[in-house]
Amino acid sequence: MRGPGRARWWVVRGAVVVLVLLSLVLLWRTAESRGTWPTLGIGPSPEDPIRISPPWVRAGKWNKMTIGFFNAEEDAVAPTVTPSLSCTDVDGIGVEAEGLSIPSSAVGNYSARVHVSPLTEPGYYPCVFTIRNAQKAFFLEVR
After folding, report:
1. What is the CATH number of the domain that holds 73?
2. b/e string for 1-21 if b means 16 or more Cβ within 10 A?
3. Which tens digits make up the pLDDT trace of 31-83?
4. What's the pTM value of the predicted model, to 2 decimals?
5. Is 137 a member of any domain?
6. Which of 50, 69, 78, 143 to pair with 134, CA 20 to 30 A apart?
7. How far apart are the C-alpha atoms of 118 and 58, rounded to whole Å?
8. Is residue 44 situated within a structural domain?
9. Which residue segment(s) compose the domain that 27 sits in?
10. By the 8 A CB rule, do 53 and 37 touch?
């Protein structure tokens, strides 16, 4: 094929490629915002009662985080207990999570949303997650 017909073919083909790419990006963003939470690679245990996935956040955004907790205490965890997070040199940190009822010697996974100030510089910050009497020290990466 030669001439104007060939040019139209390339224009139509390019438009189809652009539409397919835009559709894929839209599908990816929709799936990402749909409420899917990160999964824990290895669950919590009596030796390591708090597990976190992922150990990073984007500054200025609410980030989804799964926090696994093994209740090694004798009594159940009440639904009023939620995880708390404190970090050195990080201002404006917030954690939102619904409480769980976790029986003794059982595991529960909190679906948390974590936020740090948009003014926080990218880097690694020493942090501690606390659930009841258990603590998990780790380095939180701020991107």
Report:
1. 2.60.40.10
2. eeeeeeeeeeeeeeeeeeeee
3. 555 568 899 989 999 999 999 999 999 999 999 999 999 999 999 999 999 99
4. 0.72
5. yes
6. 143
7. 8
8. no
9. 1-34
10. no
